[in-house]
Amino acid sequence: MKIAIRGALKSVALEKENRQLRTELGKAFSVGNIVGNSPAMQVVFDLVQRVSTTKTNIMILGESGTGKELVAHAIHRNGADASSPFVVINCAAVPETLFESELFGYKRGAFTGAVADKKGIFEQANGGTLFLDEVGDIPLSVQVKLLRAIQQRSFRAVGGLEDVTVDVRIICATNKNLEEMVAKGEFREDLFYRLNVIQIRMPSLRERPEDITLLSEHFLRKFSVAMGKPLKGIAKEAARMLQGYQFPGNVRELENIMERAVALENQSIVLPESLPQKLLLGTAAAGQVASPGPAASSAPVAGSPSAKGFDLEKGVEDFERAHIVKALSETKGV
């Protein structure tokens, strides 16, 4: 009887908590697919709205996984002509020998294998936006040609005889310190200033912990729909573990964690067991305190029957958490 009552009370409390979370998420200010309600993200959203209608070059800075490409997409979609081209190139993925032809294209016969004319990404993005991701990885040998294309709004294809004029807005992003690279001679100063007209800094998830719950609920719904699993929410203890984690991989890591949780969960809510072991162990470690000395060894421990104002629910939660951590440790998280 007690177990049944306790289970019913937990279900009522969980449903109330989920309603509150959904209400809170509904109030979240968002642009495009970017979710956040923290002061740091309000600054980002404000900048996105203000620069979207301009053709000014923009540089987005931030750690890996913070959502720099999402911001670039949001700026383009909120612009005057959202239907214009949005072309992306990952500068870190292009070999130096192919960079010029990727940017500006080539003419038939320009080199071995060039059997037909090919447009480069500058021409593909004409009238729209060119997003240079990982711009700090552009080789120095190519930077001077990129600078000329930005300044003159024209370029010449590899093997071409005539200049091609384009109207392109440049948005670039990097997780590197470009000013430091300029000082070391690893990035051209003139190119840096051409690209860095307006700067948007994406905060890490550690700098916006108040958004973790909103993002978790957002990804829960996204993957519940994608996988056809009608999960109702996130258990209180699981939410607490997510809130206590540092997320070195930022929003991308949180998204991966929630995808994993939805895929593994066979209950109606995301339970702690469906989270990665690193979250469980990290939360347990954060809750540990230094062992009391001899003089304090007889003092009541919080959550024990001898402690003043014993909290049964907290005691049960602590026991369940310790049991989960022990089980996962023994099974290596499987």
Q: Could you write a compact summary of the structure shown?
A:
With 334 residues, the chain is an alpha/beta fold.
Describe the structure.
The chain has 334 residues and is α/β, with parallel strands linked by helices. The protein has two domains: 2-29 and 208-287 and 311-331, Helicase, Ruva Protein, domain 3, CATH 1.10.8.60; 39-202, P-loop containing nucleotide triphosphate hydrolases (Rossmann fold, 3-Layer(aba) Sandwich), CATH 3.40.50.300. It is built from 13 helices and eleven strands. The strands form four sheets. The chain has a five-stranded parallel sheet with strand order 4-5-8-3-9. It has a two-stranded antiparallel sheet with strand order 1-2. Helix 1 packs across helix 9 (212-227), helix 4 (96-104) runs parallel beside helix 6 (140-152) and helix 9 (212-227) crosses helix 11. The longest helix has 26 residues, at 2-27. The two termini are 34 Å apart.
Fill in the CATH topology of the largest domain: Rossmann fold
Give the H and E element order: HEEHEHEHHEHEEEHHEHEHHEHH
CATH class of the largest domain: Alpha Beta
CATH superfamily of the largest domain: P-loop containing nucleotide triphosphate hydrolases
Structural class: alpha/beta
The total strand number stands at: 11
The CATH architecture assignment of the largest domain turns out to be 3-Layer(aba) Sandwich
Helix content: 40-55%
Total domain units: 2
Principal-axis shape: elongated
* Beginning-to-end CA distance, first to last residue: 34 Å
Characterize the main sheet. 5 strands, parallel
